[in-house]
Amino acid sequence: MFKCSHLLCFVLCLMVLGALPVAAADGPSATATATATASATAPAPAAPSPSDPAPFGANLFQGHFSQTAGGKVLQSGDRLIMRLWGGRTLDDILTVDAEGMIDIPDIGRVPVAGLPIDAKEPLEQAIASKLNAAGVVDVEMYVRPMDTQPVSLFVTGFVLRPGNYTGTPSDTILAFLDKAGGIDSKRGSYRNIRVLRQGREMGTFDLYPFVLKGAMPHIRFQDGDTVVVGEKGPSVAASGEVRNVARFEFRPEELNGSKLMELADPQPRATHVSLNGSRGGAPYNLYLPLSDFKALHLESGDQVRFLADRPGDTIMIEAQGAIRGASRFPVRRNARLHEIMSYISVEPGRANLGGLYIKRKSVAVRQKKAIEDALRRLEQNAYTATSASSDEAQIRSKEAEMLSNFISRAKEVQPEGVVVVGSRGKIADLALEDGDVIVVPEKTDVVLISGEVMMPQAIVWNKDKDMDDYIRGAGGFSNRADTSNLIVVRPSGEVIPRAKEAQPGDQVLVLPRVESKNLQAVKDISQVLYQIAVACKVILDI
């Protein structure tokens, strides 16, 4: 038993030691091992949701740039140690110029860019060919890249694995960032990357030109340099009909629609954008054509969806009231209310879904026409009525003046076009029209009393109160009230004439009494008053 216990402890110790990270050692191999271990243990990034796409450029860092062991070639700025002896003597350091050539004194220029660094034969052959062409024979040479010695850099800031990493002076900044696990997509900037050398800033790099056009930011690193990834700047998400679905980082002066279109690259079929965001702490929603979007100022956190809103295929629906999130969105033509309700996010605990109603332009137009027709009949009857005596004629003249004033005011009212869709807690699944506004009223515990009462006001609802109690709470009827003609409008827009009780959120409208010797005028005016009260929730006085 004692021996088995010791053996078990020994095995456990080996397992623990094997799980520990290998200490950093000198040389590229040790660094590569440490990097591979870190990569294996790093958590995989979560897949971005459709509403919050990944940052633009996040796909760069998948371990491919860090694989720099082989396949490197000479490029502009590289330095070569060259020694010649025998038929010609030379001991010098030559730099590859901007055209990819080295200039050998008294011999000429030799193209070397693109030749492999790790293989000496192609480089020596190129130089030997130039020497032979210049008549230099019986010469021995030694040519080696000077900058292949490893350098050690610190990579810090908003990267996944800050630390010290080894590479070569000609490695790209992408290679060192990749070794550090890449940029932290939630916090790090892809457009503000600094290289420090002995405390001095050697340059600031932006990775967007490389992602978009292949323009590689270039710097020749030295041992002890520091790469610092700054904090993410303002960002705007683009989705929908675009070639680049991503969250784009902006410089403050670039926050506009034109710059977003340049980065997102909309499809030719895109015609409109739907913008969701916030302004001043309140939800902000906008829908507009691409031509107008270019000049629009954006805010960090905005979500812009590019849409192919072809006329005839889609309609625009708006939501108002106790909602959160988007308030305008395109839907397919002939979409129905129940389908669209799944798109609308309501305020929990505040939304009165039972009181939901729709404001429709076509209904408002018909209501307006009905009111105008009634006013036209009223005007005709009032001005064509005959008088039996001069006294009656004077009375009718004053009534005509009063009616003229009433008619001019009645023509100014604008119906809301309310479509009642709720009844007894059920919401009808009607087909929607372009421009429909779905209204989700807020829950309320008050009853609003207005019209011909002494003190129009809101009164807290009480189940023990009847209509008379609410009227008394408003100071009672005015001397011009039609006490027999009360209208109750529910939050859903449903109209209850001559109601005896009220419910939370109801609006009680007390109509004025119409007095006239012309019975037809009384009838016509009463009709207009009722239509305006129902269509506009407004009480006009006579």
TrEMBL record:
Q: Which range is the signal sequence, renumbered to this chain?
A: 1-24
Membrane-crossing ranges are: none
- Alphabetical list of Gene3D superfamilies matching this protein: Outer membrane lipoprotein wza domain like
What name goes with this protein?
A: SLBB domain-containing protein
Q: What InterPro entries does this protein map onto? A: Poly_export (IPR049712), Poly_export_N (IPR003715), Soluble_ligand-bd (IPR019554)
The protein's matches in Pfam families, at most eight in alphabetical order, are given as: Poly_export, SLBB
Keyword Acyltransferase appears in the UniProt entry: no
GO MF annotation list: polysaccharide transmembrane transporter activity
Q: What's in the keyword line of the UniProt record?
A: Signal
Looking at the record, the residues that make up the Polysaccharide export protein N-terminal domain are 72-143
Query: Which intervals hold domain Soluble ligand binding?
Result: 154-204
